Amino acid sequence: MHWCFTLMFSLQAAVQGTNDSSVVSKVSAAAQGYFQDVFLQHFVCKVARRAPLINRGYYVRWRAVDHCVRRFLHITENCPKRQILSLGAGFDSLYFRLCAGEALDRAVVFEVDFPDVTRRKAALINSNITLRGMLDSYLPSPTGPVCVSSAQYRLLGVDVREESQVEEALSAAGMDWVAPTLILSEVVLTYMETQWSDTVISWTAKLLPQSLFVMYEQIHPHDPFGRIMQDHFLKLNSTLHALRQYPDTAAQRHRFLDKGWEQCVCLDMNLFYLGLVPEEERSRVESLEPFDEYEEWHQKCSHYFILTASQGSLMAQALLPHAPVSPVPSTCPSWSPTALSVQTVPVCLEGLGMASSLVSPGQVLLTGGCSRGGRGPVTRILLRGQEGWRAVSVEPALDLGVRLYHTVTTLPGGGIMVYGGRSSPLNPTRGLFRVILDLGSPLDEEQDTAKLWVDQMVCTGDPPLARWRHTATVVSHKGKDFVFVFGGKNESEAALGGGYFLSVDQQHWTEIPVEGAAPTARHSHSACSHQGGVVVFGGLDGRGVPLGDTVVLRPSERGFCWDRIEVQPPPVPRYSHTAHVIGGRLVVVGGVWLHSDGVPGGVIINLTTCSSVEFRLDTTSVPWPLMLHSFCSELTDPEGPELLLMGGGGNCFSFGTHFNLQPITVDLTPVLG
Ligand SMILES: C[S@@+](CC[C@H](N)C(=O)[O-])C[C@H]1O[C@@H](n2cnc3c(N)ncnc32)[C@H](O)[C@@H]1O
Ligand SMILES: *[C@@H]1O[C@H](CO)[C@@H](O)[C@H](O)[C@H]1NC(C)=O
Ligand SMILES: *[C@@H]1O[C@H](CO)[C@@H](O)[C@H](O)[C@H]1NC(C)=O
Ligand SMILES: *[C@@H]1O[C@H](CO)[C@@H](O)[C@H](O)[C@H]1NC(C)=O
Ligand SMILES: *[C@@H]1O[C@H](CO)[C@@H](O)[C@H](O)[C@H]1NC(C)=O
Ligand SMILES: *[C@@H]1O[C@H](CO)[C@@H](O)[C@H](O)[C@H]1NC(C)=O
């Protein structure tokens, strides 16, 4: 039985390293400065620079595992002996990293993976003098499943599912079953049928009385992002198994307690990142690369968890804290028993970060955004006729530049203002435009183009700095109309505060006194016209924490006044939603929240009584998945019972990009009744 060494030097492919996408992604993140690992690059043959979202995703994974490993090493500092057992270690560089950091005093690292993987890993280690030099009292020709055996590092080729073989191999490799041991499973157990992973969780509990199990993998398979995630792994022939039976952190925790572990703490990655990564470290990481994919980042983090389970009183001290100090309040949605019905509108229309405005009832202008295949920005009009909605293109082609996350505001007295937005996250789109729409005969059902006139608006006064993910809302003061620009972000500032007033008839940026405590700086919030002022709801603050506050800007004698209203029960914080005021109620739809209970549907806030109710959307009759973020919406009739939702979707980490391909309508009859 020559598991490893006889084959080693003839395996050219092995010496070339792996193309394993998770290792390639970790190397990319390390190269961009997210974390330090000089050894990992030795195990890859393909060096690729990944998108910032992927780098962040692998950073948080690395950081969570590193956090638990360091905590274990700290707790066991005075133990005469401690061990790390990495199951499905793949090409992880953990041993070399800890060894170089002199963190492995009196510790032995055991790694287990399939024989062909450990064989290749052994070959790679052996081919590099630095790596080989880091193995003390290196045994050149070990036997059986042992591919590498040194004083502090043992690499074993066995199938983790074969309990007795693993136990035998570990014993042969010198595992001390009573020494404090950390068992690591980083995205491994979910690849085997749940009966096998359950067995692993049981036998480790049984055999290692002083131990800490650390696991990182996926949860929430059933929401739109979860579904795309599952489909991705299915296509790669590496089905995710465990999350069907254990779909959330509570189920994972009970799983470990049921399988014999004494204590268990499981946190989703949003809670880990916001609660256990110090703010300075988060700022460092967030400033490494231009970034504007908040929705995707939070969704990725809500679909992975870090779990620690302990045996023995010493190991209990190494558990993650049950309730980390998180800046996100743990509000639960107050669900209404009624779900709002959602229908498809048979028009092809897709885009992320588009902006819309209701020009008049049944007429919606849509600009900018990006769509599949990097197709450029398209300006379109949606018209409602007797046959339902239809899309009408615009002539001459309207060039507003590449624009995402901008605003389109219908001005009192005619015209539509297009403001802000960005092309790349380093390039805000400058310029302010006024668009005038000529639909010809609106009753002509055959008509398939509309005319638009576009003027650059030249405004006097002090304009706000270029921004995106802001709002631009019509307010009025003493009979004069203004566009109120609030919040957003720019290249260097994570969230902008302040408010700016543009006089509509004078085209002048005007200083108007505003009293009261201004709301926290934010972006991706909503701001709706209401009684001459605006209602601001939600958004994401400068620390990357979703907000759930409702703040009203009211006209006053001298100017305006901010007035925060305390809504009961408090709505779950969210951002990237849309909102409309309908007859004294604020209707908020979609968005992203960090709550584990599904995705947001709609929350209705009664602005008189300041009470709120959450509604789910009944999406059974629309194409699935429906992703309601980075979309736009219009109330097609000012008093109407129906909302039209257009575009939306996002890049689902490395699992593919999803676009909602058709608009949908949400029937608001149950909430307006
Ligand atoms: C996604 S990789 C993760 C590798 C490593 N834990 C990391 O995070 O970088 C999953 C690893 O688990 C290993 N694996 C999966 N099923 C296994 C089994 N039944 N026995 C041993 N290893 C297994 C695979 O070979 C692969 O190396
Ligand atoms: C890695 O992938 C590249 C193409 O993506 C391929 O040409 C190469 O042979 C692969 N190497 C190994 C060792 O699998
Ligand atoms: C060996 O690996 C180390 C660490 O990854 C790297 O710095 C060094 O360049 C490698 N040496 C060779 C000869 O590949
Ligand atoms: C997955 O397995 C099927 C059937 O065994 C095979 O046809 C397909 O090529 C595999 N796909 C990948 C991505 O390996
Ligand atoms: C972004 O906004 C901040 C705050 O208003 C400002 O100080 C900064 O100069 C802006 N950054 C750029 C690149 O314009
Ligand atoms: C707000 O709630 C009060 C008390 O339930 C109700 O009388 C009023 O009609 C509601 N207003 C709106 C606009 O729904």
Question: Domains counted in the coordinates: how many?
Answer: 2
SSE class: alpha+beta
* CATH class label of the largest domain: Mainly Beta
Strand order of the largest sheet: 3-4-2-1-5-6-8-7
- Would you give the CATH topology of the largest domain? Neuraminidase
Radius of gyration: 28 Å
What bound compounds does this protein have?
A: S-adenosylmethionine, 2-acetamido-2-deoxy-beta-D-glucopyranose
Biggest sheet record: 8 strands, mixed
Beta-strand residue fraction? 25-35%
CATH architecture of the largest domain: 6 Propeller
Dominant shape: elongated
Number of helices: 17
GO molecular function, one term: tRNA methyltransferase activity
Signal peptide: 1-17
Family: Belongs to the methyltransferase superfamily. LCMT family.
Subunit structure: Interacts with RNF144B/IBRDC2.
Concise overview:
The chain is an alpha+beta fold and 673 residues long. It is built from 17 helices and 37 strands. The strands form six sheets. An eight-stranded mixed beta sheet has the order 3-4-2-1-5-6-8-7, sandwiched between helices.
List the helices and strands and how they pair.
Elements: H1 5-8, H2 12-15, H3 21-31, H4 52-75, E1 82-87, H5 94-100, E2 107-113, H6 115-126, H7 129-133, E3 146-149, E4 153-157, H8 163-172, E5 181-186, H9 194-207, E6 211-218, H10 224-235, H11 242-245, H12 249-258, E7 263-268, H13 269-276, H14 279-286, H15 294-302, E8 304-311, H16 313-316, E9 335-344, E10 355-360, E11 363-367, E12 380-385, E13 388-395, E14 407-410, E15 416-419, E16 432-438, E17 449-456, E18 460-461, E19 471-477, E20 480-486, E21 499-503, E22 508-510, E23 514-515, E24 522-523, E25 526-530, E26 533-541, E27 546-555, E28 560-565, E29 578-582, E30 585-589, E31 602-606, E32 611-618, E33 631-635, E34 642-647, E35 649-651, E36 657-659, E37 664-667, H17 669-672
Helix pairs in contact: 3-4, 4-15
The protein binds S-adenosylmethionine and 2-acetamido-2-deoxy-beta-D-glucopyranose (5 copies).
One 2-acetamido-2-deoxy-beta-D-glucopyranose (NAG) binds next to loops.
